[in-house]
Amino acid sequence: MKTLIIGASGQIGKMTTQKMLAQEHEVVALVRDKSKLTDIEHPNLSIVEQDLENDFSHALTGVQQVIFSAGSGGATGADKTLLIDLWAAVKAINYAVDAQVEHFIMVSSIGADDPDGIESSIKPYLVAKHMADEHLLHSGLHYSIVRPGTLLNESASGLFTINRPATRQDAVINREDVADALVYIASHKPDKSQLFELFNGDKPLDELLAGN
């Protein structure tokens, strides 16, 4: 199965790309600047350089699976949040429908279920994620929506929970664990669409998602 990774030069996207290739997946990496992937060489990797604010439908040619891990980044304003986290995600979903993609994996965020439930400067980001998720939910695509907790730069623990911790400080997950989760989901296409939050926990992912 050929997988398109949108946002393959981001922190999670790049780790996911490297881990997918290590497992011999065929990967198409969609990036705005291909120089950010010069340290990755693999015969199963092809790179498409395209700004997500423009038409990138050609990147889905021959693709069976999409991982959307792109993000505008914390240093940008609400305009880029709207154009990347919402509009580019919506376009990717629409392109996937047209391309008859078999599985669409969305990296969302804790709080995307209820952006009004949190008073934070990232509320525009959560609204964008909420609307993108809703578009995917109603697209007719087979999907996996993953809503990670607050992201940390620790090494992967390999242990997860899909139950939201009681305290905000415990509602965290390592970026590398998110990448490992994306690889697992991409490698084990679920029988039915799924949406879940994901945090550092005490169980391996295959145990948490058994039967999907």
UniProtKB/TrEMBL annotation:
Superkingdom as given in the UniProt entry: Bacteria
CDD domains in the cross-refs: SDR_a5
Domain called NAD(P)-binding: residue spans: 7-188
InterPro entries: NAD(P)-bd_dom (IPR016040), NAD(P)-bd_dom_sf (IPR036291)
PANTHER family linked: FLAVIN REDUCTASE-RELATED (PTHR15020), UPF0659 PROTEIN YMR090W (PTHR15020:SF50)
Protein's name in the database: Uncharacterized conserved protein YbjT, contains NAD(P)-binding and DUF2867 domains
Species whose genome carries this gene: Pseudoalteromonas lipolytica
